[in-house]
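Sample pair:
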Amino acid sequence: MGRVGSWYRESLVGHPVGRDFRRLWAGDTVSQVGTQVGGIALPLLAVQVLGADELEMGLLATFENIAFLLVGLPAGAWVDRLLKRRVLVVGDLVRALALLSLPVAYLLDVLTFPLLLVVATVTGVATVFFDVAYQSYLPSIVPSSRISEGNARLQVSHSVAHVVGPALGGLLVRAVGAPLVLLVDALSFLGSALFLGRIRHREEPPSRAGRRPLRTEIGEGLRFVVGQPLLRRIVATTATSNAASNLGGGLLVLYVVRDLGLSEAQLGLVLSVGALGGLAGAFASGAVMRVVGEGRTIALAILPSSAAAALVPLAAGRSQGTALVMLAVSMAVYGFGVVVYNVAQVSFRQRLCPLPLLGRMNASVRFVVWGVNPVAAFVGGVVAAQAGIVTVLWAGVVLEAAAVLPVLLSPLVRMRDLPRHLDQHADRSADEGGDETVDAPADGRRDSTEPAGP
């Protein structure tokens, strides 16, 4: 017990500096579990209650992600002008109210597919602001030296939610129906808002004195991302991988329930068992980065994921038991690699970027890596309506294999340690693939608050 107690006190969770992080973590955990329950209920609502086909499922996935194209870039500049905790709480409340409208509409017998698209869009816009503020808020309440630990803990919550949520959601949908299950998702956002509202850290309101036109501030975020060789490669890989997964991602429920003949509970079980890989990745990410190195982890982590993606279309025509196992293995391997990759690359981005630019940097990255999602989902729905879902899934496998190339064929594969701040020396080291670690200030950040140039 002594060793366990000592470990707990020294960890971010038990240490006094982690008080506000615990509340952020608790709010995120509640929200993530509810989101995973709702994540399986929403497409099942479309398929089972509204009879959605391939094209409509593609449209639903498109509207769920279209906010990243509509407000992805200005969201970062707006978040940098606002109190981030307030943005987080408002984002939770908006999503709760939007989702509550669906079970209410169902009970009043006025539920329609267009209403589903409206709710998907509203929750998507709120999610954009929440996610940008979320990643930008973490470095404000966690010491720079503990950012990787904080991200790893958050990934644990995400992975646990992926394990528990879909199975619970599948069982609940089978028991009470998809519309009422969405109440759980709405209540989870209310619970998250309560936890976030108890965070004691008080931000200083961003100064208005140095505020520039919105277009100028948006441009600074884009130039930061585009101007750094390592970030360009990471963004290219992430965007291509997201496009690959979203080609068939919006069709997965239709494919599993209709084409493979699995039940709602079996679908939830597949997603939950597969998510165990993500949970393992969250726990293993620190050890992997210590053994393999930060740069090499980013370059190599998603190689197994790209191979495992092929098991999804290969499950077509198999027995239910075989298909169940193939899907679970695919998602477990995929989840492990993606989570390890995300912990490494997100922590690197957060350490590298000056605090005043974090919102715009995160928004710029998400505009690119998530902005491809609605396009890919729409294309997947259109192609599936003509050529079938399996064809779209195989196209996603090919694109997933291509996604690893920007980081695999880059200096990252030869870099154990990554730069801690940006200067010309760091960029030369990145281009040359050196193993050097660039010295950073004690807090892990550059002293200047001005955006770093290439």
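The chain has one domain: 12-198+217-432.
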